[in-house]
């Protein structure tokens, strides 16, 4: 039987690769401009990093992790997200002692055992930013600005930014208590999963997609987390709002936004695009001031963001991107001597920065021309006996059908000109 890629994974090839490269380039350039350095953490980690960091009661830990025991008997998990690994690396390398304020970014595959559909994969890719050691709400604004800048530069439109604060270790417990009481009073209509979570971790109830549970969350008397914020959390939130207004970034406050990971404190946010349908979140993040502590380190404030690259690529595809740089010259030798001449010419083209594709002498000119056409290449350089006699090359333009004999210098000049005009 033919072996296929596992469900929820896919190959990225052909023209789509150009989109990915463009996206990666925009991310890297903006990260550099904002002073973020790249960090590359392992694709797998000790399972405990995620059970502790992301939270035992989250969907990610309960249902979605690729976990296995390795040959040494260790429990290993393919990373479902990048924040816990980044904080683990920060602590492991002692940054809190020698250089406590860092700005890092990453790009790479993440793994979640979810039901695959358009924009939801089991191996998917994220780019993300994490700023550690910064308490100031201006850093939350910086992260949001960075995300916003990247989305805008990619030409994405119809973005909506939802914001909330889920409080800190002082005020959050009051809200959680009130939420538990409220949900207790509505227990009869909640699903079995929510009934269990209501005891263990009531905030996680809000991740439930069940229609009846959702109706409970929409009730007018449902406790609003904004009413429970302490003075410090309120100040943090108000400052962030005023900074975003100053930056001209539109947002709406969604008091039901809690995000599906346990490590958040204060700011949480999500960026959505309506056109994507059910999988409309193209990125999300927030502040996680307690995460370093949970992972066994000191108190280190942190704020970050991650975006799903598959979803962004889907949007780029729909927008008709890319305007590809398709200029390439096809080198078609007629015999072995011509092959030598074109191989030598390829060095000159390389130096001049002109992309080329060299074919070999074993094929006929008819074959070469057909192949060049199939590849979407406009110019074919031919080298055979005739060209040798004239100490030059033939250049055939497949669009006009015109063919001319040129010296090497004339050929280079013409190709340079055509490349510029392209
Ligand atoms: P997250 O919301 O779980 O946050 O994931 C961020 C983004 O990854 C989502 O908004 C979505 O675009 C994309 N994504 C998630 N799951 C899938 C999937 N199965 N297939 C395709 N795309 C997916 C985090 O991961 C946090 N670490 C974000 C963060 C960084 N918070 C602070 N710093």
Automatic annotation (TrEMBL):
GO terms for molecular function: ATP binding; histidine-tRNA ligase activity. Its EC number is 6.1.1.21. CDD domains: HisRS-like_core. It is found in: Cytoplasm. Residues 1-333 form the Aminoacyl-transfer RNA synthetases class-II family profile domain. InterPro entries: aa-tRNA-synth_II (IPR006195), aa-tRNA-synth_II/BPL/LPL (IPR045864), Anticodon-bd (IPR004154), Anticodon-bd_dom_sf (IPR036621), His-tRNA-ligase (IPR015807), HisRS-like_core (IPR041715), HisRS/HisZ (IPR004516). Transmembrane segments: none annotated. SUPFAM superfamilies: Class II aaRS ABD-related, Class II aaRS and biotin synthetases. It is an enzyme of class 6 (ligase). Its main location: cytoplasm. It catalyses: tRNA(His) + L-histidine + ATP = L-histidyl-tRNA(His) + AMP + diphosphate + H(+). The keyword GTP-binding does not apply. L-histidine binds at residues 81-83, 112, 126, 130, 259, 263-264. PROSITE patterns: AA_TRNA_LIGASE_II. The keyword Aminoacyl-tRNA synthetase applies. Coiled coil: none annotated. GO terms for cellular component: cytoplasm. GO terms for biological process: histidyl-tRNA aminoacylation. Keywords: Aminoacyl-tRNA synthetase, ATP-binding, Cytoplasm, Ligase, Nucleotide-binding, Protein biosynthesis. Homodimer. Belongs to the class-II aminoacyl-tRNA synthetase family. This is Histidine--tRNA ligase.
């Amino acid at each position: 039987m033919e072996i296929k890629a596992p469900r929820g994974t896919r190959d990225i090839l052909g023209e789509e690769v150009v989109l990915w490269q463009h996206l990666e380039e925009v991310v890297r350039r903006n990260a550099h401009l904002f002073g973020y350095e790249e960090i590359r953490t392992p694709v797998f980690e000790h399972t405990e990093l995620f059970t502790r960091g992301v939270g035992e009661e989250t969907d990610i830990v309960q249902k979605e992790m690729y976990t296995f025991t390795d040959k040494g008997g260790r429990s290993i998990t393919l990373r479902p997200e990048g924040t816990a690994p980044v904080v683990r690396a920060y602590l492991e390398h002692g940054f809190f002692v020698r250089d406590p304020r860092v700005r890092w970014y990453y790009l790479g595959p993440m793994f979640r055992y979810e039901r695959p559909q358009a924009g939801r994969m089991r191996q998917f890719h994220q780019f993300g930013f994490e700023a550690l050691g910064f308490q100031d709400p201006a850093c939350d604004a910086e992260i949001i600005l960075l995300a916003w800048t990247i989305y805008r530069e990619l030409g994405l439109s119809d973005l909506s930014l939802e914001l909330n604060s889920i409080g800190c270790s002082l005020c959050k417990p009051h809200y959680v208590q009130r939420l538990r009481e409220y949900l207790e009073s509505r227990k009869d209509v909640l699903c079995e999963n929510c009934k269990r979570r209501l005891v263990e971790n009531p905030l996680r109830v809000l991740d439930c997609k069940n229609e009846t549970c959702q109706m409970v969350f929409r009730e007018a008397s449902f406790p609003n987390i904004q009413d429970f914020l302490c003075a410090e959390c309120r100040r943090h939130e108000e400052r962030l709002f005023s900074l975003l207004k100053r930056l001209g970034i539109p947002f709406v406050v969604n008091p039901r936004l809690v995000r599906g990971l346990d490590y958040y404190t204060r700011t949480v946010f999500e960026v959505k695009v309506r056109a994507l349908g059910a999988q409309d979140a193209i990125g999300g993040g927030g502040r996680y001031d307690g995460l370093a502590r949970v992972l066994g380190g000191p108190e280190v404030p942190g704020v970050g963001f991650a975006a799903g690259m598959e979803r962004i690529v889907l949007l780029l595809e729909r927008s008709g991107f890319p305007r590809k740089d398709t200029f390439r010259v096809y080198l078609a030798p007629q015999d072995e001597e011509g092959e030598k001449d074109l191989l030598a010419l390829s060095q000159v083209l390389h130096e001049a920065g002109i992309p080329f594709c060299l074919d070999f002498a074993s094929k006929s000119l008819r074959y070469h021309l057909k192949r060049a056409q199939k590849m979407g290449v406009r110019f074919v350089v031919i080298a055979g006996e005739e060209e040798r006699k004239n100490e030059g090359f033939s250049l055939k333009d497949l669009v006009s059908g015109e063919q001319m004999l040129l010296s090497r210098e004339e050929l280079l000049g013409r190709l340079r000109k055509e490349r510029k005009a392209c």
